[in-house]
Fold this sequence. Notes:
Layout lengths: L1 H9 L5 E3 L7 E3 L2 E4 L10 H5 L2 E12 L2 E12 L5 E7 L5 E9 L5 E8 L2 E8 L8 E7 L5 E11 L5 E7 L5 E9 L5 E8 L4 E6 L15 E10 L5 E8 L4 E9 L4 E8 L5 E11 L2 E12 L2 E13 L2 E10 L5 E11 L5 E8 L4 E11 L1
Parallel strand pairs: 15-16
Antiparallel strand pairs: 1-16, 2-3, 4-5, 4-26, 5-6, 6-7, 7-8, 8-9, 9-10, 10-11, 11-12, 12-13, 13-14, 14-15, 16-17, 17-18, 18-19, 19-20, 20-21, 21-22, 22-23, 23-24, 24-25, 25-26
Amino acid sequence: MKKFVLLSFLLLAVIQVVFAQPDRQLYYKGILIFEPYYREEYSSESIKSNHVSKETKTSYQRKGDVEKIKSSVNNLYDSLGRAIGYEYLNKKGEMTWGMYFQYDAKGRIIERQYRYNKHFFSTAYEFSDFKEPIEIISRKGESPDNMKVTKTVINSFNPDSNKISSITYNKKMNISSIVIYTYDSLKKLGIAKLYGKKGKFIHSWNFECNEKQGVPDKKGKEQNICTSHITLENGHTQTITITEGYKSIERKIVESGEKGRFTRTEIYSGTAGNILSYRSLYTYANDTNYNSYERFHIQKNQSKPWSVYKSKSVKGKTISKNETYFKKKNKLESSTSSSFKYNDNGLLIEEDVTDMVKKTVRIIRTSYSYL
């Protein structure tokens, strides 16, 4: 039955099959397999045009006429409007969590630094002429000046700039794992294989979309990942990515068009890949943006509501926002509605959040520092 369901989705229309390229970080039991994102994190246009260097959002809980500070968040920006840091402060004003970025001249992130309470972590990326780094070094310690190396990843590439191996070393520079990547004649990723420190095969990811797919291995050591593109009657492109393992199938369907002004995504999971776990819709027209997403619990092979988010923005300014959360038994946990205030420069200065279920009001006031 599983094989029949998978083949049915692959034969929806005249399909151009391509090799799926990972679109997010992927770890396997703590081992880095794919990490495609090293680009800058940009702020909103209003932050950039007003030359904001620091944005502080302070959250207050209101009860009657009394307001109590709950927490604060600092967002930090450079002169190009790129995010260079986020900091979380508790109600006492103590920073308990922070994350910072450094960029190179090409806008690639070359270092991420983290702080959680009194623990410090960093990840440094060294680039050459390839889109991915040739070396990744992770450190941790009790202070920024006293961090020790915990892990090193060395990547190697072929003349076509495709990564052919990724070797992970522990803090003593002994090999922990090896990932080998192979490509087809069109230079597209075909298979990624993971081996342990003693060279024993552990797991593989197959992107070849060949006739053997649809029959997962019974030991659960292989995932088949195949992506297809369909041109719909309305001119939109529909991309279907099916990730099939031994006990489950994930099916991701993305419809996009109108030069980035429309995107609809649905993700299904389960043994047959037919249980809805995520759904979102993004549209933009006449300076108005609509964004929504829904997440679902999977219980007894059925989708149960988990959260619903909807927002409306005009010329980059959020006008309305609603968020609803459910407990596992479909009981409402919270349902909030937000209203917004902006200053004459178009910067957000206040958001009022009313929870109709909990009967609470939260105010988030924003202040700014400038370059």
